[in-house]
Amino acid sequence: MFRRSKRKILFVCAAVHNSELIFESIEASSLEEASNAFKTKYGTDPSKILGPFVKKKVFQPQSTTNLKFDGDPKKAMFNGWLVNAFFLKEPANSAFLIFIKKIDKETKQNYKGTIIVPINEIRLI
User: Fold this and answer.
1) From 11, 40, 66, 93, which residue has the greatest number of CB atoms within 10 Å?
2) Same structural domain for residues 86 and 114?
3) Is residue 59 part of a domain?
4) pLDDT at position 46, please?
């Protein structure tokens, strides 16, 4: 059976010491523990403690596709966006899109980065 790992609990502590702002995120199980850790490290009590916060896990997908490009990029439209489309040999009948700018103001979809789509979903300009 898999056990889910505990998420790290963070407290943000801040203080002014010798006319200098000290600001740090401290991993602790309670407010008091965070305050004591800050005091031990900097020799002063924090004047403000925010938290607890849970550190967000960031998903970084692994690239599992080998891309083989076929020729130069073409300007195209995809779902109200102007894109550079790189046609692919592998996977076949697909295009690798790099988003340039939104040209249809009514389009609610926002894209980040790049995607691979079937060729029949784009329109060449």
Assistant:
1) 11
2) yes
3) no
4) 96
pLDDT at 43 over 80: yes
Query: Distances from the Cα of 11 to the Cαs of 42, 58, 116, in angstroms?
Result: 15, 19, 40
Residue 114 half-sphere exposure toward CB, CA atoms < 13 A? 11
DSSP 32-73: HHHHHHHHHHHSS--SEEEEEEEPPPPP-PPP----EE-SS-
Number of domains in the chain: 2
Q: What is the pLDDT of residues 25-37, one digit of tens each?
A: 999 999 999 999 9
3-state DSSP call for residue 121?
Answer: helix
Handedness of CA 94, 99, 103, 106 (dihedral sign): positive
Cβ pair 85, 95 in contact under 8 A: yes
Give the residue among 81, 11, 79 at the shortest CA–CA distance from 50. 11
Same domain, 81 and 110: yes
3 pLDDT higher than 60: no
pLDDT above 70 as % of the chain: 87
